[in-house]
Each structure stands twice: as structure tokens, then as C-alpha cells.
Amino acid sequence: MPLLMMVLFLLIIIIGRVALQFILVGDSGVRSGTRLRTKKEMLISFLMFGVVGVQALLAWLYATSRLKPQLELGALSVGIGLALCVIGIAFSSYAQYKMGKEWRIGVDPDERTELVTTGIYKLIRNPIYTGCIVHGTGLIILAPHLLFLVTGIIGYFAVRAYVKDIEEPYLIELHGDEFRQYMSQTGSFFPRLKNG
Description:
This protein is mainly alpha-helical. The chain has helices at residues 2-25, 39-63, 75-99, 127-142, 146-175, 177-185. It has one domain (2-7, 39-104, 113-185): Four Helix Bundle (Hemerythrin (Met), subunit A) (Up-down Bundle). Helix 2 packs antiparallel against helix 5 (146-175) and helix 4 (127-142) runs antiparallel to helix 5 (146-175).
């Protein structure tokens, strides 16, 4: 099951969206990490995108019984894992759709895009990553193995670092006070709770 969920993720969230972006605007939306400014940014980018490749390999090893579960989980756990994977894929796909032609994989410091703050982006700045985190949590439940857990944790912290150290500085530079205000009103991965 983890392999199927990983294949669906790759087909819908990466390959499908790149194809749709090309159809919509004549460009894949993929930006090379080589345009990043520092070695730290390149490392963070490599870790974030590299985890996807490692988890795809782990899912294949799991499906071919080369990687065995380290915990025996019941049918309820499998159902929860599947639900989280499907919800994560659907949520990320919806967030990509709402981003429209401004969607990108990666950052090109010289590129100018419009700031999207409507729809789900009115509540959450990074809902695509939210969906990816939910999907990754589902994978960990579906494949209860330490390697899935470790790559999931690395992926989570790499996404946080990518947002904090690469995307947000780029968007602050590009949109200035408009983005700073947007940051103060929204949560990064989950809606911000209002006080009082």
C-alpha cells in the first residue's frame, strides 16, 4: 500500500502538476536548485526533494518485502494511514490548483510572481506542504519501519527550513510589507489561532 500511495503522490502532485502547468502557461514551473544563492540553501533544497526519492525507494523495498514492518498494526491503522495519504494528496492538489499559474517547484531568486492570498491561502501560507506532511504521516503509519520514520522527520524539518530560509526571504524581498502582513495573519502550515 505505501508504494501505491507514493506512486499516486508522484503522479498527481509532481508529474501531473508539472504537465498541467506546462499546458496552462507553457512552462513546467520547475526551478533548479542551482539558482539558489548559498550552499546552505542548496543543501536544504536537496534534503527536501531528496527525501521524496528516498521514500519512493523505501516504498518499493517495502512492497517487495525487502523491508519488513517493525510493528504489526491492525486494519484500523492501515485505514488511518490510507486516509491520511489520500487526504494529503487531495489537499496538496487543491492547494496547487488554487495557486494557479503562480505555482512553482523551487525558487528562482530572479523570478517575479504574484502573491496568492485567497482561498486556502487566506488561512495557511504553505498548504501544499501541509498536504505533503499529512501524506508523509500516512506513509509512516502504512509502513511502520524506522527508515520511514527517520526520512519523514528529516523531510518535515527540511520543509520547515526550506520555507524559513528560502521561500519566505524570497517572498519578503519580492513583496515586502504585503508579505510581512500576510505572515502575521496566517499560519505557516496550519491556520493561526486567534487570541480572544
